[in-house]
Amino acid sequence: DWTPDSFVETTIAALKEKLGDDKVVLGLSGGVDSSVAAVLLHHAIGKNLYCIFVDNGLLRKNEFESVLESYKHMGLNVKGVDAKQRFYDALSGLSDPEKKRKAIGRVFIEVFDDEAHQVQDVKWLGQGTIYPDVIESVSVKGPSATIKSHHNVGGLPDFMKLKVVEPLNTLFKDEVRRVGKALQIDDNILGRHPFPGPGLAIRILGEITPEKVAILQEADAIYINNLRSAGVYDKVWQAGAIYLPVQSVGVMGDERTYENVVCLRAVESLDGMTADWCHLPYDLLAKISNEIINNVKGINRVVYDISSKPPATIEWE
Ligand code: XMP
Known about the structure:
It is a single chain. The chain is α/β, with parallel strands linked by helices. The chain has helices spanning 4-19, 32-45, 63-73, 84-91, 97-116, 131-139, 173-182, 187-190, 210-229, 282-295, and strands at 23-28, 49-55, 78-82, 122-126, 163-165, 238-252, 255-268, 276-277, 299-304. It folds into two domains: 4-190, 3-Layer(aba) Sandwich (Rossmann fold), CATH 3.40.50.620; 203-304, GMP Synthetase, Chain A, domain 3. The two termini are 39 Å apart. The chain binds xanthosine-5'-monophosphate (XMP). Xanthosine-5'-monophosphate binds at residues 101, 148, 150-152, 194, 196-198, 238, 272, 309, 313-315.
């Protein structure tokens, strides 16, 4: 029978056997999957695991600093890399979702490769790929159904020549969380909602600019903090704000405004393959909407997404 403890035990033993004294590099994303994969590998090979945490400029507000701190606390051998400008440069002028994903994937690999080259004699790339990532990236291969290319699946460009080790690729999200608990990983990391690799770039519809990122980070932080203080965060599978490329008329005091719309999304799901929109309380939605409109310059309207997956997807891009 599968239990988190037996999984941890057999996986660590198998990793020791497989990796021996080899060195592994792993990109941490701040999410549950890469964090759990890192801790498993750390248990198996200790300092031979070299973690790299890249700031792509597309994370939530203050996320990079606070998560890097947590990783260090957990004893991981981790290096934080500020690559914000490289990502913004690569995204400049792009508005097609798949082009944005590809650009982000490409820059991530470049940055990661630069860092990996600094680790002498590295043999392996560790990844936090989970089972649904594997299925979705297989199922989108058909020409009629290019849904989304998940950039963190499918391994490597040839030039990296590393073997791939993916200790979680048979698990669903809830199982990954249970394994993380068995490994005593902090709740602040384990309880975190899933967050896409391309980050806020696919929650800003159209072209990305650092200014739009800053606006969305503020709105998103108000949203998420309110979900937390209302005790709702843990009941929601995934939530986030989306910056819409739509301007609408509003009034602020005596002034007419013409500003952008932010959409709030919150879903219930088991594994992200299907999802229902959450029936958040109206008074909570009202409070969040007021706070965003009153505090985030550039936003004068907030809407709530009431679409389920399928036929909608969780992300808007
Ligand atoms: P969708 O939008 O396809 O999302 O219903 C399902 C789950 O996958 C996440 N997602 C991504 N994760 N790279 C990722 O690492 C991506 O390009 C990507 N696109 C979607 C999404 O946040 C949700 O949890």
